Amino acid sequence: MDRARPRLVRPSRAETTAAVAVGVLTLAGLLALPLVAAAEPDERIVAPSPADPGWWLVVALLLAQAIALLAAKRSTRLVLAVVAVVPALHAVAVPGATFSLTTVAVAAAIVWAVLRRPLRSLSAVVPAAGLLVAGAQYVNDVRSGSAPGVATLGAALLQAFAIVAVALAVGLVVAARHDARVARGHELLALRREHDALVQAAVARERVAMSRELHDIAAHHMSGIALLASAIYRQVDLDPEAAKVSAQQVRAQSTTVLDDLRRVIGLLRDEAESPRSVETLAAVRELVERRRAAGADVELVAHTGTGTGTGTGTEVLGAGIGTLAQLVAYRMVQESLANAAAHAPGARCVVEIDDRQPDRLTVLVTNDASHAPDPGPGGGFGLVGMRERAELVDAELHHGPTADGGWQVRLTLRRDAILDDVPQEPA
């Protein structure tokens, strides 16, 4: 039986970047060391030459540290131990000024360890790595010509402590910033989910409200169908042609009510509530008058085929606009005026109904900029309800700020085919 081959784990992009950066930095320092030695002739800096076998040994040690960092993410503590041993090997084999280059990888491994593991899991390996570097520093200094003793040992311990402390500080700062970004991301995600839940609740409330109004809409259409059916019964023998026309009207009325029912199917009505009238475009006048009585500065302008009026009740509005669509227009005006009162208190509002186009009717609610203090942003759920209602009747809804700092909401309703008047049931 064939054995499964072990899977090779490729280093991550972060591991590769860290290893390449350390390798390039330390090799660049090795190549620049002769320039430093030439600039400081009084210092005891001995720069090895590529002709010296020790120079190539230093290159091999630095490359070994960089290669070890490729596994820093998977074996954090092991990699730290490996790179911490290299300075000791350097101090024994090729002591000299190049020793400090081997501590760069140790610092990088400590930073990586702090980022990947909790501090308590590093309580042994980090101090051990620091002591190993301190011991290697002492051996390197003594073999490079420094006198053995407490002073040299103290200097070695101080240098090792500085390397470990700086690396720990950098790692902790980077880790803290990363944790803050993650926490902020989680907070934004929670806020987004909360907002989505509130939007869904607002949409559900609007759907339930429309389902409660559906009963009255259906009752309006069904009463018309009942009258037409009665007329057909009386006309079928006396006036067959009139009976055919009435039958066509029954079919049109039935199609209309089925379309309205299909749009809000699945929504339930609370039968415990008392019956309510269905608001239409004609009821906008009463809505505006109630707002005026409450102290609001609201004006109604109605444009019809016979001219422009002020909503006194003499204009016939909404011919060919279905009952459900007229209800949507009424609710849009109601919600827009409520939003204006909440977000622009005291501002003048204009409700404009344009009923002059043969294929559509437009309702426009505009409020001026408010001089009162800004009450702050709202949840936007009123607009959600308007959009939900507009989609139910295939209407177009647009809203946004005006040039003078106010706000405008525009609803465009498609006009249905105009039916003949429903005949009255004969006495």
Automatic annotation (TrEMBL):
- Protein EC: 2.7.13.3
- Is this entry keyworded ATP-binding? yes
GO molecular function, a single term: phosphorelay sensor kinase activity
UniProt keywords, alphabetically: ATP-binding, Kinase, Membrane, Nucleotide-binding, Phosphoprotein, Transferase, Transmembrane, Transmembrane helix, Two-component regulatory system
**GO CC list:** membrane
Signal transduction histidine kinase subgroup 3 dimerisation and phosphoacceptor domain mapped to chain residues: 206-271
What is this protein called in UniProt? histidine kinase
Taxonomic lineage from the root: Bacteria, Bacillati, Actinomycetota, Actinomycetes, Micrococcales
